Amino acid sequence: MQRLVLTLFSAVSIAALTGCSSPPHGPEEKYFLVTTNTKVPYWQNALAGLAKASSQMKGIHAEMVGPETYDPKAEHEEFQHALTKKPTGILVSVSDPKVIQPDIDAAIAQGIPVITMDSDAEKSKRLLFIGTDNYRAGSMGGKVLVESLNGKGNVAVFTIPEQANLAQRMHGYSDTLANHPGIKVTQTIDMKGDPRVAFDTTTDIISKKAIDKIDAFVCLEAIACPEIADVLDREHVKGKVVVAMDTDDRTLDWIQKGGINATIGQKPFTMAFYGIQMLDDLYHNKPASLDKDWAQDSFSTLPTFVDTGVTLIDKNNVAAYKSQRDSATAK
What we know:
331 residues, alpha/beta, Rossmann fold, 2 domains, seven-stranded mixed sheet, six-stranded mixed sheet, 11 helices, elongated
């Protein structure tokens, strides 16, 4: 398990958003970001956003916890462990709603605000979701696919079926492709959050001569497409369309080398940066009750969904993206 602790002392940030005077902060404020795959660049960018927000608050404790692999059970255990520390608030990326929803509901019952980010548990009692409009992200990827294939071809999709955000992306792809009957999804691979599955599956497709029946690869998560591009390059397979997700360094490098056509970039830095500030505001301005259906309250003080946006990254803007990222995440 990995615990990355940030106890930072500096100026307060909430005033920058609200225009109000900054509330006092102290070490009794303890915020946790709970996720899986904490070592991947996506979550390191989220950690940078957590650090940025924390550096603008005086004396708070902010910590990212979770397993270094895709492991919903281990994420559940980390969530439970965070609850024992009497947190002020929790951000959580839900790897599997069936596993994590009871944890969210238990925290709310204890009066601990929970905001989901990146991946939601819509049926839980979480206060709101901060992240990507995943249907829109899938639609954007679908448009890239249609243009790159000139409206015709067979597609292999790599995904993790348990994750609701990936299902929403697939929905966006499917609706876009519905208007282009010449493009068909012929394979859907559960890569189980393991890059080796993507590598081995692509290798197997090539070794069995099935590669001639696949014109494009789509990845609905961050870690499969760099493996696919690597295998295609090793085996000297040319002319395949690869549409990735997120901004892993290897993904960006493959875009520059021509092995990946484009990727849909999310904003984990923004999710964490804004999420901790919303939790802080809830701490200083706590509602009378956390346990209510905020989405059905027409006069709620909370939004249901904060869309942090997506960016299409290809050869035309990948260098500019890298420069922006390096500036934002510099220590």
